[in-house]
Design brief:
Distance between the termini: 28 Å
Shape: globular
Order of helices and strands: EEHEEEEHEE
Strand content: over 45%
Number of strands: 8
Structural class: alpha/beta
Largest sheet: 4 strands, mixed
Radius of gyration: 15 Å
Helix content: 10-25%
Strand order of the largest sheet: 1-2-8-7
Number of helices: 2
């Protein structure tokens, strides 16, 4: 899972393995070790009425209603966006999407990424 933070927004990009975990286990997470601590991001299906995001201990937890998560997984859609209100009146913008292979060579393994729909297009 790739995560991008910018102002009041979080963008999650999930590869094929991440999507398989969401479908079979109902949860996917990414852990980064920093010194003696860890920072982790979790996306999990739960029996809740609406999406919610929580900052807990050393991580960010995005909780999604199970039916919403299952619908996305089975639909073939690239992704979805959420706008979750914060307690201070601001909103947290969330984007969850499939991670596509890059169109240019990079020193990053994207073998588990989804085929890029633009790969056959000439620019």
């Amino acid at each position: 899972m790739k995560i991008r933070l910018r102002a009041n927004s979080i963008r999650y990009r999930l590869d094929k393995i991440d999507m398989e975990l969401l479908e079979t286990v109902g949860k996917v997470e990414s852990i980064t070790h920093i010194g003696t601590g860890t920072l982790h991001f979790v996306i999990r299906g739960k029996d809740i009425p609406a999406p919610t995001a929580k900052l807990e201990h050393d991580g960010v937890h995005l909780l999604l209603p199970i039916p919403q998560l299952q619908l996305w997984i089975s639909s073939g859609d690239v992704g979805f966006s959420l706008d979750i209100p914060n307690a201070d009146g601001s909103n947290l913008a969330i984007l969850v999407e499939k991670d596509f292979k890059c169109l240019t060579d990079r020193a990053e393994d994207d073998s588990e990424s989804f085929d890029n729909p633009m790969a056959s297009k000439n620019c």
